[in-house]
Amino acid sequence: xxxxxxxxxxxxxxxxxxxxxxxxxxxxxSEMKRKQGLSVNGEKVTVRYVLKEGDCVxxxxxxxxxxxxIEPVYIEIRILYEDEHIVVVDKPPFMxxxxxxxxRNDTLANALAYxxxxxNFVMRAINRLDRNTSGIVLVAKNRKSAFxxxxxxxxxxxxxxxxxxxxxxPPEKFSVEAYMKRKNESVIERRICFKDEDGAEYSYTxxxxxxxxxxxxxxxxxxxxxxxxxxxxxxxxxxxxYLGFPISGDDLYGKEGERHMLHCRxxxxxxxxxxxxxxxxxxxxxxxx
Length: 289
Fold this sequence. Notes:
Elements: E1 2-4, H1 14-21, H2 26-34, E2 38-40, E3 56-59, E4 78-82, E5 86-91, H3 108-115, E6 134-140, H4 143-154, E7 159-167, E8 173-182, E9 190-193, E10 201-214, E11 220-228, H5 235-243, E12 262-270, E13 277-281
Parallel strand pairs: 6-12
Antiparallel strand pairs: 1-3, 2-3, 4-5, 5-6, 7-11, 7-12, 8-9, 8-10, 10-11, 12-13
């Protein structure tokens, strides 16, 4: 990426420009130095270089090697947005984000590795969805974008809204504020716990019941909107089960089904390069169930 130095930054050290203007972390700047990924006006310089108005600062954010063990596989996926910095994907249910045991070549990572097979693609998913959770996944295409977006996620500045189909009828407006931890040292399952338990992590969800209806099996189900203010593993699934209205089809925290009915419908964030607010919507397909 090339950046033209404006008069505002005339006389600034390159090191300061990289940190305060381009928002690069110290570790990323160090990596750029080590890999000789920094230059000014086409010439290699040190970070102590004093910038002048009109200088062209070039920073190479490209990866030298692709992600290991991710086989490029053609899988049709729906792209909501794409540029040289990010890609926003509408992930279908039954598709893992990353390869794992039993899912080596049917993941979102495989599909993106194929899409960018002519580049050194590294899978950097900013938000991660369970295999059976559908909806919006944001992926950074380079190290700078990943750093910027990951910081937004840590600072809870990435907006997320999910929709779920639950068993029963929750209150019109509800919230869950609780601590969570692994259940019996399980790698996967989580549970509500006390604040002072080892491994306890704070979690907070707001929800609203949109509509309820009786299905052909005679049971009443509700379509709810969920806003996770924290991002704990299985947070929404655990919180709804804790309230007594488990997500339909949730085989861990409710009753077994073809899939748990959870969908990431909305995602908002600040673009890592333009600083523009980005918003995306993906309508769920629960009606077919």
